[in-house]
Amino acid sequence: EVQLQASGGGTVQIGGSLRLSCVASGFTFDDYAIGWFRQAPGKQREAVACGNDFIGTSYSDSAKGRFAESSDSAKSTVYLQMNNLKPEDTAIYYCMACRIVTVAGRDRINPLGDFGSWGRGTQVTVSS
Distance from CA of residue 116 to its chain's centroid? Predict the structure, then answer.
């Protein structure tokens, strides 16, 4: 049974920080890149970051310079450090196995299809 459980969300003021965690189980952790995706009400799900400690990490334009992904393979856990948070970051955050594809010179982050359930995610709210 593949499981990816995100946690660590909360409510912060503009400019604040949060550290999200994602505990993975049911598969060989180091065989995959794990990423973060988010979805705000009324909007489509969008990629935030994808990678691992072996191949590096790709970030969305919005996340670059503010967010940083890291992992601990011994704990099968991925982290997302979120700094200088903005109201636009308000969303439910999910973790999921992912891949990076280069299209027209730009990296595109895609979730792996048929890997596992998105689950409930964790809510991040940034006050305006």
Answer: 15
Beta strand spans in 8-121 (E): 11-12, 18-25, 33-39, 46-52, 56-59, 67-72, 77-82, 91-103, 106-111
Is the pLDDT at 55 greater than 80? The verdict is: yes
pLDDT above 80 (res 93): yes
Q: Are 3 and 116 in contact (CB under 8 A)?
A: yes
Query: 32-55 in b/e burial notation, b at 16+ Cβ within 10 A?
Result: bbbbbbbeeeeeeeebbbbbbeee
Report the distance separating Cα 50 and Cα 10, nearest Å: 22
* CA 76 centroid distance within chain: 15
Instruction: Output the pLDDT for position 119.
Output: 85
